[in-house]
């Protein structure tokens, strides 16, 4: 019944279970009868409390990350602010897409699905385009299978949706948090090369500490996006979730070097951040070309008089 969603068979199962005479099973069946309508609905409909449970796990993860480092006010900023905006009537609990559509057409905005493996082997995903939504499943395959239904419910309209997956991996580096993010797209091989180069840096203690000496996101993580030269600032900015969030674009250059470009959404509490003037369609390759290369001054020999 659970896998095939045949909740209509539940009354017969309860009857058979109680007739079996096993104390534990009979007691369980009796409990099901006390809430028969709700249990039948859970065994019939595809909708369930999975997104809510994913949200709870996300809150617990953030709490564990901040244990001993921060108090309740910071947790409130991380968890309560995304839910605090006004809602349209009839849309309680749902966020509105930043660019809407009419007549059920496909959403023009690309949705970035940020996927991370949880400690119990399951997976959960967040979406910057859907603030407040945390979507969890027991496996990546199940998460992908139910994604369209979850997005349709969240945005209040049918798909299809233009979704790009990003897979994250978490590291503890020098008592700080580092996360690598790799997009699953046509540039995956190039991004994988960047990911491997970051891994090489992490194997060198002195260099590993330098990787976390840059901007952090709202929960104190330094997020490195495995980037390619054709990525645009708009594509990277679309992965930032709200004010005060941040990430670092990492590019592989030369033979064994990494070029890192911090990108942040300033909430006016970080004086070291500054506003850039490049348009969203600017490619990273264009920015790299503008970075000045400093030539060390030549040493002039001195002649004794």
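^ Assign residues to that structure.
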């Amino acid at each position: 019944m659970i896998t095939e969603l045949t909740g209509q068979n539940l009354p017969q199962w309860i009857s058979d279970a109680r007739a079996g005479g096993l104390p534990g099973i009979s007691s369980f069946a009796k409990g099901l009868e006390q809430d028969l309508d709700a249990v039948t609905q859970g065994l019939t409909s595809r909708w369930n409390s999975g997104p809510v449970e994913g949200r709870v796990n996300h809150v617990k993860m953030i709490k564990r990350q901040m244990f001993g480092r921060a108090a309740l006010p910071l947790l409130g900023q991380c968890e309560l602010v995304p839910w605090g905006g006004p809602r349209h009537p009839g849309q309680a609990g749902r966020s509105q897409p930043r660019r809407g559509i009419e007549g059920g057409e496909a959403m023009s905005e690309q949705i970035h699905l940020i996927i991370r493996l949880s400690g119990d082997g399951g997976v959960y995903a967040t979406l910057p385009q859907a603030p407040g939504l945390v979507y969890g499943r027991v496996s990546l395959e199940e998460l992908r299978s139910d994604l369209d239904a979850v997005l349709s419910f969240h945005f209040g309209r049918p798909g299809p949706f233009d979704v790009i997956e990003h897979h994250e991996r978490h590291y503890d580096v020098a008592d700080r948090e580092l996360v690598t993010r790799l997009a699953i797209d046509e540039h995956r091989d190039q991004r994988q090369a960047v990911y491997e180069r970051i891994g090489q840096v992490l194997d060198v203690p002195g260099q590993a500490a330098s990787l976390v000496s840059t901007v952090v996101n709202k929960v104190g993580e330094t997020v490195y996006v495995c980037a390619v030269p054709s990525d645009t600032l708009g594509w990277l900015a679309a992965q930032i979730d709200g004010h005060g969030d941040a990430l670092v674009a990492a590019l592989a250059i030369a033979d064994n070097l990494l070029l890192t470009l911090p990108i942040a959404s300033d909430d006016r509490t970080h004086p070291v951040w500054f506003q850039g003037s490049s348009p969203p369609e600017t490619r990273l390759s264009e920015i790299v070309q503008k970075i000045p290369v400093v030539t060390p001054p030549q040493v002039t020999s001195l002649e004794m008089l």
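Confidence is low (pLDDT under 50) at residues 80-107, 300-305.
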